[in-house]
Structure formats: structure tokens, C-alpha cells
């Protein structure tokens, strides 16, 4: 199979990428474009994100990170029940007592559903996992505090090529996992100064 040139890219996929570029996220969220996976779908794109205590500062602490992948198959895929599939990952380090909560997985999945609901999306064919890793150090490392790493993997099918609301929902999920307070209703995040 030969790689597609710019003229071979379907217009619907190009429009979906433009809808992502129009999204403004909170200033604590730093988005970067990275190559999408090559073998899962004929067309793909991906973004990575970090939620930091200060934007683009080397000294800023990372609160959460993740990946947002767009898969597009013009023919559709039966498992997706559509042409656009979104695959996301969110990772965050939590306080030990939060990580020990037996309902953490259910709560984290509700963050995903709430984030989509916050932009009026009903996830179609949604699937995912919530994983937590409890780390306790011993020996020379016993001075480290216990920590919990949370990982939320979710995928769902987008009904159309306007993926902007999906990216905003994922950014909200990242910020929730990072422990940031939600923005009040009616408050729109400002983009970075140029």
C-alpha cells in the first residue's frame, strides 16, 4: 500500500482536524501534535497533553498527562459502529488515601462520563478501563511517600466530523484527574498570549 498524499486525504478527515485546531483549552493544559498510530485505521492523528501547575515552565509540576487519538476509516468499522473512533488515555498521580478508596475506579469512570456530558456528548459505543497502581517503597527508598498512579483509558465513536467538543471533554477529564477545580459556568479559558 502506498502512503496517501495530501490530495488523497478525505475531506471529512481534514475537517475533523480543523475542528480540533479551533479548540481553546485551559492555560494549564499544554497540547502537542504527535504522529498517530499507523496500522489501526487508514487515517489517524494524535495529540499529547500535560497538565502543569504553570504553562510551559520547566519548574512547573506535572499534574496529569495523556493522549488523544483520532482514528478515521471512510468505510467505517463494525466494532466502532461508525467512521470516527476516539481513543484516549489519562494518567495522574493521586494522594495515597484517594488511591486507596475502593470506589476509585467507578469515580474515575464517572469523571469520563461527566466530562462528555459537560459538552452535551453522549458517548456512542464507549469502552474503557480504569487502572490504579499503588506504590510503596522499601529499604533505601522507604523515605518516599506512598503514591497511587491512576490511568483512565477510554474510546468511543464520534457521530460526525466535529471533534472539537470531544477534545474539550478530554481536556476536562485531564484537569479533573489532575485535581484542578472546574471552571465556573460561563467562564471560557483564555488562550496563551502571543
Topology:
Blueprint lengths: L10 H11 L7 E6 L8 E10 L9 E16 L4 E13 L1 H4 L4 H14 L6 E12 L11 E12 L5 H15 L16
Antiparallel strand pairs: 1-2, 2-3, 3-4, 4-6, 5-6
Helix pairs in contact: 3-4
Task: Briefly say what this structure is.
With 194 residues, the chain is α+β, with helices and mostly antiparallel strands. The chain contains 4 helices and 6 strands, in the order αββββααββα. It has one domain.
Q: What are the defining features of this structure?
A:
six-stranded antiparallel β-sheet, 194 residues, 4 helices, 6 strands, 23% helix, single chain, alpha+beta
Number of helices: 4
- What is the N-to-C succession of helices and strands? HEEEEHHEEH
Strand line-up in the sheet with most strands: 1-2-3-4-6-5
Helical content stands at 10-25%
Q: What distance lies between the first and last C-alpha atoms, to the nearest angstrom?
A: 42 Å
Radius of gyration: 18 Å
The total number of structural domains is: 1
What portion of residues belong to β-strands? 35-45%
The profile of the biggest β sheet is: 6 strands, antiparallel
Give the uncertain stretches in residue-range form.
none
- Number of strand segments: 6
Class by SSE composition:
alpha+beta
What sort of overall outline do the alpha carbons produce when their principal axes are compared?
Answer: elongated
Q: For the residues shown, what is the average pLDDT?
A: 86
Protein described:
It is a single chain. By secondary structure, this protein is of the alpha+beta class. The protein has one domain (12-178). The protein has 4 helices and 6 strands. It has helices spanning 11-21, 96-99, 104-117, 164-178; strands at 29-34, 43-52, 62-77, 82-94, 124-135, 147-158. It has a 6-stranded antiparallel sheet with strand order 1-2-3-4-6-5. Helix 3 runs antiparallel to helix 4. The radius of gyration is 18 Å and the shape is elongated. 28% of the residues are buried.
